[in-house]
Design goal:
By secondary structure, the protein is an alpha+beta fold. It has five domains: 201 residues, Rossmann fold (3-Layer(aba) Sandwich); 90 residues, Elongation Factor Tu (Ef-tu), domain 3, CATH 2.40.30; 71 residues, 2-Layer Sandwich (Alpha-Beta Plaits), CATH 3.30.70.870; 106 residues, Alpha-Beta Plaits, CATH 3.30.70.240; 109 residues, Alpha-Beta Plaits (2-Layer Sandwich). Helix content is 25%, strand content 31%. The protein contains 14 helices and 31 strands. It has an eight-stranded antiparallel beta sheet with strand order 11-10-16-7-8-15-12-13. The chain has a six-stranded mixed beta sheet with strand order 2-3-1-4-5-6, with helices on both faces. Strands 21, 22, 23, 24, 25 and 26 form a six-stranded antiparallel beta sheet that branches. A hairpin with a 2-residue loop joins strand 30 and strand 31. The longest helix is centred in the C-terminal third of the chain and has 21 residues.
Amino acid sequence: MNLSNIRNFSIIAHIDHGKSTLADRMLEVTGTIEARKMRDQVLDNMELERERGITIKMQPVRMIYNPNGTIDQANSGPGQKSNVKSQKLSNSEPFVLNLIDTPGHIDFSYEVSRALHAVEGSILLVDSTQGVQAQTLTTLSMARENGLTIIPVVSKIDSPLARPDDVALELAELLDVDPDTVIRVSGRTGEGVRELLDAVIERIPPPTPEDAPNGSMRALVFDFKYSEHRGVIVYVRMMAGSVARNTPLLFSASKESFICIETGIFKPAEMPTDSLSAGEIGYIVTGIKRPGIASVGDTITTAKNPLPALPGYMIPRPVVWASIYPESQDDFPELKLALGKLKLSDASFSFEEETSGALGRGFRCGFLGMLHLEIITERLRREFSLDLVVTMPSITYRVVYRASGKGGERREETIYSPHLFPDDGLLEEIYEPWASVILILPNSYMTALMPLLFEHEAEIGETKSFGDNRSEIMLEMPLREMMRNFFDELKSVSSGFASISYEIGEYRKADVVRLDILVAEEPVAAFTRVVSRRRAEEEAEAAVEKLYEILPRQQVQIKLQAKAFGRIISSKTLSGFRKDVTQHMYGGDITRKMKLREKQKKGKKKMQARANVNIPHEVFLKMMKNSKD
């Protein structure tokens, strides 16, 4: 294949800026998918993606495009004519356009960075009704770090609320380019899509292959999936050499050898080919059916003459932890099998078995963020039909114990679960992760924002005007506070106009304490949380009050308490059921009724001493939600 006719590119954008819709129109214009087979968000294969309108799993596709317009016009969308002015497009041979549709959420930033390493250029898509958003800046920074050619594009120009000229100027100032170079498109009508494809060919350079001595090869793994019959299928960008069926290969990071079962390309369905060569994007079937072998960012090379691994690989580290239990302990084996299957296609989350006195056997799981947690749990429910109990999400803390005894040494430990957090008097120092945050919102909401930032312990840094009466605010805040409903409250105070992007930063000293919730004087591990000292009493009262409202009454009265600082700081008593044991008696000596009531009193006392409180699973689910719900 002629490398000069290959273009590898991705589309980067903030969530809901029309990325998947634009990809649909590209597939139509290039005739990659027949019109009768087209549907909305065709590259989003998961039902969850189409429901929420977001891309969760990245999807590559190969398109064949002739800029002279000699394609099947039945599949060319709204009939936009090619506006070809460059001599570069006079080549009669069609171009191969390899597109990687990437997720837009910050939880998947590492996967996006590896996908950007697999291409030479990116389309920076900005919604003409919203302008540049916080995530736009973060993804643009990653693209620039990889040295990619950026094509600025304004989308949704057909909307009645569109401001294409203003947003194009804003985008041009951000990239320091001429506003006339900003392309205007509509993913709904297809307007400007042909001009955009022509710009991809004109502006993005073709791939440059690396040297591959002695018949060796090297490829970057930017994603993978699992097949029941063929094992792990890795999505690769060929950097050097070529690979064909039955070639012995090696994963550089995991040191696992395997035989290439099949190579192919994406159309967007998998289409087998004889081989893959340098500059191409495709897939390799490994046949491996064990988790933990394939990972995003790893390098595949020949087993006989291996080349050095590509730079930039790192092991994704979970930042949010939560325990997952089956509602019925009979489903524990199914949950274990389901987590293992998901691990085969998503190496970025981890799990290990744990046991809770209240919930039974389950798994402690690590996630890249709150959206990642939500996606995994939703997939478990939908794809494996499991009923789950998910505990309160938490983050990782580093604690330093006080020196014990004369000449004792301080001991440091990493805590992943709130109920394992040490008692207050045992600790000398506590450290928690902080996040560097970028907010963009209209100036009119700045006044309402400030109390929210104070409430969530944010440290405000640089603030600058961003154009169109909007401001960009740089701040730092504890990751713990970001998880405490910050995103929802931010959307509320800004009427949905604020956008946010963040990166996990360094660990800092934390002023936090463990808050235990006790039911009948027994702590319930699933309700335990780590809270700020200054909010401990407020959190305790809210938790006890909520539990009082949702916990069903029992035969005996139950104490509901919250404990922190080594003492009870909030308490409430849930009264038990009462039964009138004398209701069947009419008249007679009063002593008969007194004897029955005394007998009932002794029975209640005996029951109170032996009672086990039954906490329904619905109570756990409601307690995990925001206390304001």
